[in-house]
Design brief:
Blueprint lengths: L7 H21 L9 H24 L15 H6 L39 E4 L2 E4 L8 E5 L4 H12 L4 E5 L6 E2 L5 H5 L6 E4 L5 E5 L6 H12 L4
Parallel strand pairs: 3-4
Antiparallel strand pairs: 1-2, 1-5, 3-6, 6-7
Length: 229
């Protein structure tokens, strides 16, 4: 890893952050071993991109005499560090194309699409401040919109079946209070939709709609995400 940009250490941390929850769930028996295969699928393209970015910075900042043929255009540092867009079998899109996704996005203008990091939004939970990034515990977390009680109830049923799932809803569907009223729009779930967060804070799935049988739909989503467990 060229030193320009200072990306080496943060890349290693991101590698571990992406891998450790998968390893933990497989060892605990709450996910199938095939989940581990998604590590390289997600991280290798990101690492290659970061090396290219570091090398481009080296040429522009240190040695401009080096060839600039096919040199990658510079991306913003914040996008490189926090804007990874993952594409793997551990990410489920609902009516969203994968092949048109940029490898990174600006985390200051998040899309909320599956494969991206959940944006930090301050909420209130039982009278205390919390971040959206704190919602996952040791497994997946469901977050439903204010009219998403059907998703909340279905998720509680799945969690009762010992799936690694914590459940949150924006009031009145749950105990979360979004004082600024911007979360549902920012992450693209609307008031009737929901999303699933992975333990690493990456959005694994989302929908902006209700469903005639949310329990069946959530089970259909959770099964491939945990690789049959």
């Amino acid at each position: 890893m060229p030193p320009t940009g200072g990306f080496g250490g943060n890349t290693g941390i991101a590698d571990a952050h992406t891998h450790v929850w998968k390893l933990s769930m497989v060892l605990a028996g709450t996910a199938g071993p095939a989940l581990l295969d998604s590590y390289e699928t997600e991280r290798k393209p990101q690492c290659e991109l970061i090396v290219e970015q570091a090398y481009a910075r080296y040429i522009k900042r240190v040695d401009p005499s080096l060839p600039t043929t096919n040199l990658a255009p510079l991306l913003g540092d914040v996008a490189i560090e926090l804007g990874s867009v993952y594409c793997s079998e551990a990410i489920l899109d609902e009516n969203e194309r994968r092949d048109d996704a940029a490898p990174v996005e600006d985390p200051q203008n998040p899309s909320g699409r599956p494969g991206t990091r959940m944006p930090h939004i301050t909420l209130q939970l039982n009278g205390a401040s919390c971040s959206t990034l704190d919602l996952p515990d040791n497994g997946f977390a469901l977050l439903a919109g204010a009219d998403g009680l059907h998703w909340v109830e279905a998720a509680h049923s799945l969690a009762a079946a010992e799936l690694p799932l914590t459940v949150h809803g924006i009031a009145p569907a749950g105990a979360l209070v979004d004082a600024d009223g911007r979360l549902e729009e920012k992450v693209g779930i609307g008031v009737r939709g929901a999303l699933l967060l992975r333990p690493d804070g990456v959005i694994a799935w989302r929908t902006a709609r209700a469903h005639p049988d949310p329990l069946v739909r959530l089970r259909d989503v959770m099964t491939p995400l945990t690789f049959g467990r």
